[in-house]
Design brief:
14 strands; six-stranded parallel β-sheet; 16 helices; about 15% strand; about 425 residues; alpha/beta; single chain; five-stranded parallel β-sheet
Length: about 425
């Protein structure tokens, strides 16, 4: 049963405790990556057969296979995917930006160029559940950024990728799809194999082995983030429906046993009613065992003095998902400083953001919302600046540059400016 805690400074350690991912995978992942780097396709295929039962299926998914899979998706759900894709594309289109040029001083031209990455690898999980939503959330902003080559990798149990995943890939504009998951997929994307050309960046969530593999190849390629267990934090006033609150908590608890669902409320009565409602709803879930472990081990209900204090606690926790289940949520929005994504009011459940609303659902976890942001178009571009000075413009500032360089003891820096104005 979930714990109910009254907030106090002495309880902070217990309130702020988080579940951690498995940590004993580093050596295993290191060995897999080394094998893939040395043996390419041979290693990737061997691991796919071993872990996923791929049955020797070829790595690359053909266009004919994609077309057949898409045709097999029922029209109603295909419509859902299309509408979700439209919402995601419309939201992320506002993030697209071009460079700029500044010419405020005579003889000086400064600017910045914004360029898409050349190739991006998208990891799509395929373990206990299938996530076509993740395909859309990763592929659409990449394509809006102008990425020419978006490569998707995903486990293929028995050599088969769920048709909904392939349909989402087609809608999202994915260019290449490969049947491979786990650390071996990350290795293939980072190093390249005979079949899979290397990429510049790897995005997408995964299990502990995938997260560790991304950590180990980071630097050779860029990565989006190291994703931890899923989280939801709900700030609720006394007028909230406990049935709704419990359902929202379980929407994250069913992800995995390490997921965390936290409620902060000003009402002891609501706390007890949500506690009871969780006990009623958990046995009704198909993934009840997972939800039960998550709620019992990582779930918390915290009773705060007031809503302002609840928001302060939420900022300290910096959750992946933050629901302000309040009658007047906009009164508190500006007080929120640290959250991956914020859901306002009593008719914006977190699941709305997971699938349909438009904002990205790839979010910082484990408190990293203190310093990082949701996946966006910005994650798929790189920038460089440029500088142009005429002779007269450089002459005006040469003494300043030389003084700076000499103060830092870098004579050659100073000389590189001075030499341009010495008489022959």
């Amino acid at each position: 049963m979930i714990r109910i805690l009254s907030y106090s400074e002495s309880m902070r350690e217990e309130i702020f405790a988080r579940a951690t991912m498995e940590s004993n995978v580093s050596e295993v992942v290191s060995d897999i990556l080394a094998d893939v780097r040395q043996n390419g396709d041979k290693a990737v295929l061997a691991y796919s057969d071993c872990f996923d039962g791929a049955n020797g299926a070829p790595l690359k998914v053909t266009k004919a296979e994609i077309a057949k899979a898409v045709a097999g998706v029922d029209k109603a759900f295909m419509g859902v995917l299309q509408r979700a894709a439209e919402n995601i594309r419309a939201f992320h289109a506002h993030q697209v930006r071009s460079g700029f040029v500044v010419s405020e001083q005579e003889g000086v031209l400064l600017g910045q160029k914004v360029l898409p990455l050349g190739a991006v690898g998208l990891y799509v999980p395929g373990g206990t559940a299938s996530y076509p939503s993740s395909v859309l959330m990763n592929a659409i902003p990449a394509k809006l950024a102008g990425v020419e080559r978006v490569v998707m990798v995903t486990p293929a149990k028995g050599g088969v990728i769920p048709r909904e995943i392939l349909a989402a890939a087609q809608l999202g504009g994915v260019d290449e799809i490969y049947r491979v998951g786990g650390a071996q997929a990350i290795g293939a994307l980072a190093y390249g194999t005979e079949t899979i050309r290397r990429v510049d960046k790897i995005v997408g969530p995964g299990n502990a082995f995938v997260a560790e593999a991304k950590r180990q190849v980071s630097g050779l390629v860029d990565i989006d983030m190291i994703a931890g267990p899923s989280e939801i934090l709900i700030v609720a006033d006394e007028g909230c429906d406990p049935v709704w609150v419990a359902a929202d908590m379980l929407s994250q608890a069913e992800h995995d046993k390490n997921a965390s669902a936290v409620l902060i409320t000003v009402s002891q009565k609501l706390a007890k009613r949500v506690q009871a409602e969780l006990e009623r709803q958990i046995p009704l879930l198909p993934r009840a065992d997972i939800a039960r472990a998550s709620i019992d081990n990582n779930g918390k209900i915290v009773v705060s003095t007031n809503i302002a204090q609840a928001i302060d606690i939420a900022n300290d926790l910096a959750p992946e998902h933050l629901e302000l289940c309040l009658d007047a949520p906009f009164d508190y929005l500006d007080r929120v400083r640290c959250a991956g994504s914020v859901f306002l009011g009593k008719y914006a459940p977190e699941a709305l953001g997971d699938y349909f609303a438009g904002p990205n659902h790839v979010l910082p976890t484990s408190g990293t919302a203190r310093f990082s942001s949701p996946l966006s178009v910005d994650d798929f571009v790189k920038k460089y600046s440029f500088t142009y000075y005429t002779a007269s413009a450089l002459a005006k500032v040469q003494q300043d540059i030389q003084a700076f360089a000499m103060r830092e003891g870098l004579d050659a820096h100073a000389r590189s400016v001075a030499v341009r104005f010495e008489e022959e």
